[in-house]
Design goal:
It comes from Penicillium steckii. Keywords: Amino-acid biosynthesis, Aromatic amino acid biosynthesis, Cadmium, Cobalt, Manganese, Transferase. This is Phospho-2-dehydro-3-deoxyheptonate aldolase. With 456 residues, this protein is an alpha/beta fold. The longest helix is centred in the middle third of the chain and has 24 residues. Helix 10 runs parallel beside helix 11. The chain is 37% helix and 14% strand. The mean pLDDT is 93. The strands form 4 sheets. An 8-stranded parallel beta barrel has the order 1-2-5-8-9-10-11-14, surrounded by 4 helices. A two-stranded antiparallel ribbon has the order 3-4. It has a two-stranded antiparallel sheet with strand order 6-7. The structure holds phosphoenolpyruvate and manganese (II) ion (MN). The site of manganese (II) ion has 5 residues, from loops.
Amino acid sequence: MADWSPNSWTTKPIKQDVVYEDTQGVKDALSKLQKLPPLVTTQEITNLKNSLRNVALGKAFVLQGGDCAELFDYCNQDMIEAKVKLLLQMSLVLIWGANKPVIRIARIAGQFAKPRSSPTETINGVEMPSFRGDNINGFAADVEARRPDPSRLVSAYFHSAATLNYMRASLSSGLADLHSPLDWGLGHVITPAIKEQYSQIVKAVKDALKFMKTVGIDKDRGVETADIYTSHEGLSLEYEQTLTRLLRHPPQARYESAGEVGNGYYATSGHFIWIGDRTRQLDGAHVEFFRGIANPIGIKVGPSMQPDELVQLLDVVNPAKEIGKVTLISRYGAKKIANFLPGHIAAVQASGHIPVWQCDPMHGNTQATPSGIKTRHFTDILEELRQALEIHRTAGSFLGGMHLELTGEAVTECVGGAAGLTEDGLGERYTTFCDPRLNEKQALELAFLVAGFYRQ
Ligand code: PEP
Ligand code: MN
């Protein structure tokens, strides 16, 4: 690609930049990272890209989910297994509901960096830098811990590697083996009618698996194991740059926009990276970096995006109009989606781009309780998804997937769901370091309900 290189972003204005005092430390960290091997391969990236092409064409569905802010501490067996199992269960329900293959992408193994509304905050009367994510600074409320520490960039690589290693090992050792019984844990569902409805879905999924076993279809790859891809916001461009390598395209790659024939630049920090709503300026550093990589990429699309700006962005990051190369992750809020999504879809349709359209029903629906706790209501999340599906249907477009903030743990961060979590109950296990996540029961319930939309 003409006039692009992994560091050409440094000539552009940048938002959410991190200013390090320890400039030698930054040099050392980046030169270390530069020598380390890719975390993911071009073959895996290409497989995902080809699958997302099917999503864009309405032939598959993509489920993306994980923490808002991953911490180094989350790199442990229990939390990784819980998340992988949850995504797997949700995907089974969605396969049953939408009657399409489901592509699974976790926000994991690199989802550390966070954009913040303000670079500083005041805690107990002391002004200090805001927490920017475990790869940048510490969460502890003291000025020293909050100082950006470049060695954390190297730690981010190794925690990503350890997480990814355990995901791969456990998947290939049968964690996703559907022959072993899954715990669907519906004990928490209070309302008998809803419990009955969910039990019916679980029974349908189990019957389908039994049938496959009986007729021997389960011998095919896909029942013993499953693919789960990794993703994160590509916010820290120093980090992304060092892991972006000129590599040979695998045979199945479509490389219309991916650099020279034969080779292309691949971001190897994860399979899929996205540009956040705060860093998607047309002339900015993030868009410059993203336009040069061969990976499938995401762009968050909020209410402030103008329809013509959206098309210009697509032209910049995907001039060859590769189908499914870009995932547009819409996040307006349940009250606003009807005002913005139809115009965005119409502009994209008129442009000839065929992206994946994914609904993030989390980020437009964040609100604070009277006592100041950040939360999201299950009904708003579901409502934005319901409207997204309907608006796409009406426009002759496809809602290709959903993008959720969730955890496999029993946290109390979002209000509502079948266990009837109220604002008063939020304090019980509110452990997020950034945005409120769906807990494992709420997330599975959302999959049941979205599957139901498709079955209507
Ligand atoms: C996020 O996905 O955690 C996030 C910060 O989203 P957005 O860029 O849409 O605000
Ligand atoms: Mn978030």
